[in-house]
Amino acid sequence: MAKDPISRRTFIGAGAAAMSAAGVSMEAHAASKPLNVRFGLNLLVYTATFSSDKTDLIGKVAEMGYDGVEIPFNDLSVLDVKATARARKQAGVGLTSCCTMPPEENITSFDAGQRKAGIERLKRMVDITAGMGGDAVAGPLYAPVRELTGEWPTDDEWKWGVEGLRAGAEHAEGSGVILAIEPLNRFETHFINTAADAVKMVNEVDHPNLTVQIDTFHANIEEKDTPAAIRSAKGVLGHFHASENDRGVPGSGQVPWKECFDALAEVEYDRWVTIESFAIGISALCAAACIWRPIYDSADDLAVKGLAFLKATANVA
What we know:
With 317 residues, this protein is of the alpha/beta class. It is built from 11 helices and 8 strands. The protein has an 8-stranded parallel beta barrel with strand order 1-2-3-4-5-6-7-8, surrounded by 6 helices. Helix 3 (81-91) links the parallel strand 2 (68-73) and strand 3 (94-99). Helix 4 (112-132) runs parallel beside helix 5 (155-172) and helix 5 (155-172) crosses helix 6. The radius of gyration is 19 Å and the shape is globular. The chain starts with 7 loop residues before the first helix and ends with a helix. The model is unreliable at 1-23 (pLDDT under 50).
């Protein structure tokens, strides 16, 4: 017999009960010295698609005490640049974009037409982000998520990645926007899995507008030592996603936050620390993120508690 569909209310309620039963602790241990960073919230925790009817989320996040928002760039056609820019200015916050590459727009594809389309998408995402008043285009900008070839990256794929990302970085020059390439875990890409991979790519592209992004969720899977991975990106670290190991509330899992923040201070990182999780009430988004159980009580709870924990750990008011 088929299971009855679970409601969003029941799903979230089950998450609250599970976290309570587990005795989740969120005690913050402050970094050795204060971090000079801005705190952002990725709006994927509220919506899979950011369109003009979602711009009120920017003010909501600002009222929670965040310095900025991260806008999900999936279907670029639904984005309203002017409305988003107005909402951002009104809220008095900064902005970054979290971007993905669809299969037909892939700079490392074996199809030359898809590679060309991928470069054009990179350029368009830079222009949209700049138009919104943002300063970073972050994410797996080198390939579609979960498009796995079953092999290690070939020399040609790597060469195409260098060429495509260089074209994107050159386009971003003078815009006030950087590109930040995010290593993903092995189940989501075969191309860039570790900070070392990303640093190698950035060094080969050799353009100041291309940087490394580190996400603690992926690092928890792929790195031997996440703080060491952060230190390895000194001088090229352009974006940082603060994600718990299960995408739950930062501080409720096993990410070594104090050590990570000490490493950020050591490399003199001064850009965004952005919480990334996903809306557990949106089935398609949960499926895309492989979330099969409640991982937090509510989006608001994650946002408020996560920010408080990260600020305390970062040793800032």
